[in-house]
Amino acid sequence: MTQVLHSAPRFASSQGVKDTLTAALGDMLVTAKEQHGEVVLTVVRDRVEDALRLLRDEHEYQQLMEMAGVDFPDRVERFEVVYMLLSVTKNHRVMVKVSASEATPVPTVTTLWPNAGWLEREVFDMYGVVFAGNPDLRRILTDYGFEGHPFRKDFPLTGYVELRYSEDEKRVVYEPVELAQDLRQFDFMSPWEGANYVLPGDEKAGADTPAAPTPKSTEKPSETGAGKAASKKAAESESAPAPAKDKGAEEAGAPKPTEDRPARKARAASARDTKSATRKSADDK
């Protein structure tokens, strides 16, 4: 079998990578850390194109594998744009992040990787992050005329409109969302522990409903009825073992074994003799 050799290790280590990239990025870097076995770099938003170009050209992170968005509504700059880079020569990955708000555009990186065009369109469609310089920044996952950005935390789970095919108009029509029942939120709490809020329907019981009795608990063995005296009494009340059965004795009224009946043996012998005579007669003919 031919062994395939490659300059890249099977599993690349992140040892020393963070310090090397920190020194290389300089004032373009905001923070650097190792998290979940990966190097995570946060860079200045307006310098993201320069930072990614340096990582591509001087540190061999040739491929932009993916882009993602994250929404933190409590932050001033609520969005994070994450770039995931791969070095095929070193078999190593890094994540680069920038923060942005609804009014602060992020420089496009389509000048570095053509595939960033569609990735930036996805982040724009789902979160509303604007990428300055993208030549074709349109929605890519939602429908034409869609309003809002579905991955924002303040976007309702039910959405605003629903679509269906109308047999009367012979086309797809948009209508306001109408739910057959209220949207239920599941908190996945244990039903045995009980929820820390009033369940639907419990409010009808009112304040006059008596509280459930306090469950009885046994703090010491004497309250359980157990102890040496109880164990001794239980041992004495055990029933006596069944008497041994004599194999030779026959129970009264039990039928005799059919194999020992002489009449059955005689009939079986007569049948064998008749069969033998018939076979001999056929052979003589």
What is the gist of this entry?
This protein is α/β, with parallel strands linked by helices. 22% of the residues lie in helices and 20% in strands. It is a peripheral membrane protein.
Key terms for this structure?
22% helix, two-stranded parallel sheet, 5-stranded mixed beta sheet, 5 helices, alpha/beta, 285 residues
Structure, explained:
- Helix content is 22%, strand content 20%.
- It is α/β, with parallel strands linked by helices and 285 residues long.
- The protein has a five-stranded mixed beta sheet, covered by helices on one side. The chain has a two-stranded parallel sheet with strand order 6-7.
- The longest helix has 23 residues, at 262-284.
- The protein starts with 16 loop residues before the first helix and ends with a helix.
- The mean pLDDT is 81.
Largest sheet: 5 strands, mixed
Strand content: 15-25%
Poorly predicted runs are none
Shape type: elongated
Number of helical stretches of at least 4 residues: 5
| Helix percentage | 10-25%
* Secondary-structure element series: HEEHEEEEHEEEHH
In quaternary terms, these chains amount to single chain
What structural category characterises the helix and strand content? alpha/beta
Query: What is the C-alpha radius of gyration, as a whole number of Å?
Result: 42 Å
Distance between the termini: 77 Å
Q: Would you tell me the overall average pLDDT?
A: 81
User: What is the strand arrangement across the widest sheet?
Assistant: 1-2-5-4-3
* Total E-strand runs: 9
Pfam families: Complex1_30kDa
Domain NADH:ubiquinone oxidoreductase 30kDa subunit: 42-160
Region (Disordered): 199-285
Catalytic activity: a quinone + NADH + 5 H(+)(in) = a quinol + NAD(+) + 4 H(+)(out)
